[in-house]
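Complex record, two chains
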Amino acid sequence: MKFKFLEHTADIKFQAFGKTMSEAFKNSALAMFNSMYDKKVKPVKKVKIKIKGKDNENLLYEFLEELLFLLDTKHFFLSSIKSLKIDKKNFKLEAEMTGDHAKNYDIHIDIKAITYNEMFVKKIKDKHITQVVLDV
Amino acid sequence: MQIKKISENIYEIPKTGCMNVPGLVYASEKIMNAIKQDKTIEQIKNVACLPGILKASIALSDAHQGYGFPIGGVAAFDMKKGVISPGGVGYDINCSVRLVKTNLMKKDIEPNKEKIVNALFRKIPSGVGRGSKFQITRPELNKLLENGAQYVVDKGYGVKEDYLHMEEEGKLPGADASKVSERAIKRGLGQVGTLGAGNHFLEVQYVDEIFNKEIAKAWGLKKNQVTIMIHCGSRGLGHQVASDYIKKMEDKYGFKDLPDRELINAPINSQLGKDYYAAMAAAANFAFANKQLITYWVRKEMKYLFPKIKIDVIYDVCHNIAKFEKHIVDGKPQEVCIHRKGATRSFGPGRKEVPATYRKIGQPVIIPGSMGTSSYLLVGTKKAEELTFGSTVHGAGRVMGRGQAFKTIDKSKVEQDLKQKGIKLKSGSWKTLVDEAPEVYKDIDEVVKVVDELGISKKVVRLKPLTVIKG
């Protein structure tokens, strides 16, 4: 399982999983876009990003926020993540992604922001788990 | 957990642990049971622990779990010892509602519903990925952020009477565009005059019932008269301002001792506290300007269809905001920093903040219902100033999460219900129908009944939708 949605009265709450932290981050991004649109998105455009954080949670927050920023300013809607590397020591992240213009899809939810509410980035045995609540 | 019923519709959460003040919930028994189902009570208690909080951590009858502060929450802080918190305002700064009246009657709209909904949907950008047609340069956006709806009116998109009938006259004082980050500005540039998605909407409605003839008359409303309601906020710009300052406050003050990272705050008097207020006020002004531009387009489109139409703003209220206001605390007037997160100001007669034309009566309080249900126009009261720092509810408030909604609600039944009620709806996505179905919200009639019984705002008229646009 890449991610699952948890019940929340007003906002969107999910957990994402991975064998590595990078994979869990990747799946967190896919979960966020899946909450807005759950069918296939064409890989028309390529985008590269570099993010710097202060701790694991902040790095996840900054990464997801960058994707919202690209959605608001460039209408970039995520299709897939080709590569995602995390420098765990320095809380740095680099990702290469594909996506399409948002207007081509029937998107029903406007994610307003990432929140720190109940957020975690954890390793349990061999599994990396993230939890995020999105403000909608 | 101990919750005491202290009188009809008032519940107290006694002071325990780190709480500086008790918690107070203004709700009926039925609503209280719904509120107990999620983390609302825990969040009310967390807010009560913040420094400088005055009297009580308050939740109203539309309350539900938020992040940090609950939605439907009100908290006032001492100006010297207190704090200001981006999580106490919310990410959608000045998510707010405007109500305008027209000189049309329900019978004028009935045969034209399809035409109206199509025209407004075409003209007013809504949903995700549909930017604004309104082009604005960077220096002009700075002026807009500092002058709100007044800037837009000065550019010719409205009349002075429009902003005279808005909370803060459509311009929250103290806004400083230089405190808004480059990222927030970039998100805002393409979004002036856009509705957004989710619970934001634009409805053509009619006056279905009048509860207070005198006030309805004073506000120029009669039975079956057509009104238009616009619900939206500060879009990506406001969301970014909140994120930016949450991060800045974390860097400065740390978050290790907080029960929830979203409760991060800064002393009102600190540089960072002042900077956040100035940026938040700028975002609030973006929201006022946003609705002013949408109002301009509504006027234009409706004029094509009804050449003799006249549209006047009744009022425009903030739902997510922090402000400096004078209130009576321990018998003495005191300036406080009030946070209303999913709550509406509800000032009674006499307050200078209420527009001159309404000052003898009290301010109009606009409470939108959920999709396809009634909305209400109420009047602010002195009682609200006594009980809730001049605040009342902001809407129905959700009770059901999205996952459950998709599992239990049948889309075709929602469509049929709307059709039966004669409501024409247009939305960017069919999923909105399920996600925003009336069942996922509390019963607006019950929520409004509680505030009316409590007297923290009194019913004036009920409005019913004819056409709805959802993002």
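Note: Chain B has one domain: 4-470.
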